Amino acid sequence: MDRTERWLRLITLLRRSAHPLNRQDIFAAHPAYADERTKLESRARTFERDKAGLREMGWPLEVARDDNGEELGYRLAHAMAPSLRCSHSDRLLLAAAADSLVSVPGMPLRAAALNALAKLLEQPVAEEVAKRSDAQLERVLKVLESGCSLSFQYRTREAKRSRKVELDDALLELRGSYWYLTGFDRQRRGDRSFRLDRMSAGLKAIAGGKGKRSQPPWSHWHRVDGAPICVELRRGPLASPLPGGLMVVSEDASGAVVRCSNRLALMRWLCAGAGWSVLSPEPFKASLLERLDRLRS
Known about the structure:
By secondary structure, the chain is of the alpha+beta class. It has 4 domains: 78 residues, Arc Repressor Mutant, subunit A (Orthogonal Bundle); 43 residues, no CATH class; 84 residues; 76 residues, no CATH class. 36% of the residues lie in helices and 25% in strands. The protein has 9 helices and 13 strands. It is flat, with a radius of gyration of 24 Å.
């Protein structure tokens, strides 16, 4: 379990408890500290480092004591948590932005996205109605919330004129720096994706159709940064599941051979402590070891 996921689990554990938790309670409930395959002294040192890390990030981790100064346990001071001011639409946007990471097991930033969403849900939220800077995005969110299908005019960069699109089972996704709507295109009778900034006027809600999107949510593994590469991996004792976006050529108890078009995503996933090591090809293995050396220095 990597550091970010340990912190997330510790924050969630303390937030959900109505009373301070002592060290024994935390060690029994937290998977990283309850792992008896690791020596107790090592787990205790990890716990101390995690406490220090949370405090450095600004989390109000306190030690509760009785009148005699005896330690009762640890808690997060709710009163010190700042109020997060955002509207319902803001929260939908944050959830959609994190969805591309959270929905893909093994992604390098999956734990960070979970951590960010946990902070959003745990802190008190003050609703406010603000003027939206992106009216198109606001209209899309309202239609998606209603459960209706969408109708709009769309023109690609190459097209001379726009065409009418009727989209069923739509999904809002953040791909890099752009928002996309993916769904079943009634006219083309199949899945299509549409960039929001290329939609012209006329967006409206229409009665839901029977079309169903078959395309899974987009992930960073689908981004192409070069020719596809086949990599032979060795499975470690604490290996995480292979990301769903990877094409698995073969897999057994000792390792796997995967095919991927996004070398950078694969490199980042391996550097994040996924529990896998590279056997071949040698150039990719050398690049990974060089990156790991830079991270450790």
